[in-house]
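Z., the sequence and structure:
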Amino acid sequence: MTHHEDQAASVVSIDPSLFQEKFDELAADLAPLFTRREPRAHALDYLRGLLADLPRKNCWTMAEHAGKTRAFGLQRLLYQAVWDEGAALDAVRGFAVRHLAAPGAVLVFDETGQEKKGGATAGVGRQYTGTTGQVSNAVVAVYCTYASALGHCLVDGDLYVQEHWTKDPQRCERAGLGGDFTFRTKTAIALEQARRAVAAGVAVDWAAGDEVYGRSAKLRGFFEENAIGYVFAVGVNFAVPTKVGPIRADVLAAKKVPKRAWNRLSCGQGAKGPRVYDWALVATAGPRHHLLVRRSIADPTDLSYFYAYAPEGRSMALADLVAIAGIRWTVEEDFANGKDAVGLDHTQARRYRSWRRHIVLAMAALALLSVIASLDRKDHPAPALPTSPTADPPADFGRIALTVTEARRLFQLFTHLLRDMPTTLATRRMAFHLQWSTWRRRHQARARWHHYKRRLTDLD
């Protein structure tokens, strides 16, 4: 491809009008939730602020971005304005699923935290959070990701509040939880989210999650009742039902997995190559349930366990169950994108309703970017990847798919930075930034190709 051909291709590689078009579509979905014009306008300003390139996304910085002289309108949107954040969450989920629904879709459950100081914020307490990798003073929330072959994003989320809060009704009242607040486990929150998704008619075939959710018989039972398969991680001491009674997962694997039973498979594409492990499938008491065992290639003593269920008519092949196990990591990507791109953890709200309204709007911003990235992927093929350690570099590496963070950068450019420029200058700047974006994505595709070849070499 010549320089001029590459320049021409870059200009048409992304349709700038798509960004405003999808923003308007999402805004139309949210508009009926607001009975008054002012909170509706503030909600859109808040959404634009979350999509802006701001180091911290709080009401003051987003009010300044919107050209306001004070932050009261955005603050009032969170703590006092009349609108139903539950209905807004339904609208966000509907928008995401409308664009990302595809056969084999998965609901993925996980939690993430945000460190806090003091003890006034709703749900704050000393607890473990993967954000820090240790016990710290933090708030933790349970989220649900909708993942399909077309893309993925967060579609539900709610605060996890430790049980000791129930012993202080006045503290709960001050934090906006209500004096009659009752404790909910993380799995109970996930079950509520699963019920909301199914009640909304979300097309989903599978569910996945880590050990916290895999140990819940109620959560697993709900999916079985609704003919939804699952592949949940479980601990070594998980009691696997067998024909001779419950047996620990690690004991069952040691007894039932001979050396010849291991299969080397990839559970998905990582940033620097396929995520390859050795896998084995162990039969249990029921014909539709299996114990899936994962073994590290680098350390064969490092084993992980998954409890899997496939409804009648659904594939139970090892490769298919491994693929579902791998999709679990999409929620981690959504956490990273949510925090880095749209300020999911930037909220400074103390009361529960204000916190929840912030994360609903943050999930709306993330859904918008995920949908835009998905639509771009439909029009552009995936970049070339090596198929063997001896593969020669291709003449054209292609370009990586549009990422959420790149979509956010381009959204800011197309909908804000260029809107006040003269038409001729705006057109030139747009062409320049599109060409720059394409160059970066081509460079990343080249780097990915070599990372993957090195990974294949290591696995050979």
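Residues 85-342 form a domain with the Transposase Inhibitor Protein From Tn5; Chain A, domain 1 fold (CATH 3.90.350.10). Confidence is low (pLDDT under 50) at residues 1-12.

Let me know what you think.
H.
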